[in-house]
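queue> holo job accepted (iron/sulfur cluster)
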Amino acid sequence: MKTFECKMCGDCCFGEGGIYLEDQESERIALFLQTSHDDFLACFCEERNNRTYLKTGRDNFCIFYEMGTGCAIHPVKPGRCSLWPFYRANVEDEETWEMAKWACRGISRECSFEEFVRQSRLAEK
Ligand code: SF4
Ligand code: SF4
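queue> job finished
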């Protein structure tokens, strides 16, 4: 049984932008969008606390979230997005994993925490 299967609900793409970009992710996304790096940063990103974050749209979803189809940059989405729900905090702490289940309907209610941790290791490979 899969411990995680995204339901494409978009809940994790909603809210004040918490998705930051690691080194080279902005170049990769700019390339995917066939735009220059500078234009990508100007149109889709903002700087906060010395980090580059994706902007939030007027509907309060991530600027790349499209209702009905989901993430417009899915093949190159930031590591923060593709790693979910196997964040270190969820894998190392059972209570945090329990809270993550409330936030994300894609995390199985049937699987045990031990199974979640085991599958997180497989996801890393
Ligand atoms: S909240 Fe969970 S199920 Fe919904 S889109 Fe995000 S990862 Fe997928
Ligand atoms: S980059 Fe894609 S997956 Fe990540 S928050 Fe934005 S729309 Fe959601």
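queue> Residues 113-124 form the longest helix (12 residues).
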